[in-house]
Amino acid sequence: MSTTQGFTSAAKQTEIVESIATLYTKGVERLAEAQKKMLDVAQQHNVETIDALKKMGLGTPGAPGLFVLDLAAASFGQYADLQKDAIDLAVEQSQTLAGIAKERVNSVSKTTDGVTALAQETVERATALQKKAIEFSAAQTKTVIDTFKQQSGVAGTPVEAAATSFQNGVETIAETQKELLNIAGKASQTKARA
User: Fold this and answer.
1) How many helices, marked H, and strands, marked E, lie in the chain?
2) Can you say whether the dihedral through the CA atoms of 165, 170, 173, 179 is positive or negative?
3) CB-based contact 166:42 (threshold 8 Å)
4) Distance separating alpha carbons of residues 145 and 57, to the nearest angstrom
5) CB count, 10 Å around CB of 15?
6) Which of 16, 81, 93, 147 sits most deeply, having the most CB atoms within 10 A of its CB?
7) Cα–Cα distance between 174 and 166 in angstroms, integer?
8) pLDDT at 6 over 60
């Protein structure tokens, strides 16, 4: 009877671990898709803003070269691609962790502790990487916009106001992304403790 109970208990543990691994993986994938969609929306907004700034600059007599706007667009595009790559890395790592959990289900307590610690470390590293990328992109955009605004014929024009608005938008997106990462990190820590 105790052998049968042992098999039943092991089967339940296997089922629990598989359910948790699947839930965890799906949650990470859903969060990743939401972040990627947000980056796509931000990137599209960036393209539209750059186009509007170019049109305003072309209509302003003595407007400086608009190459800086192309540089800003390229920088933001590189930032978005870097973010998406980091998100894909986090998804791959979570899938690997889920696979490890499923493979090592026979030693559930050891695996759970190890996977939890590894998952937490992975989330922290991915979060730190994404925050650095966000901060780098925001700083690069600020430098480009500041340089653009210092060019002859920009100060006090609608082009300067639009550039400032664009910069504020990028900073808002960056702060929102960092806050989402903080929320995801807190949720991950809460799940790890549970």
Assistant:
1) 4, 0
2) negative
3) no
4) 14
5) 11
6) 93
7) 12
8) no
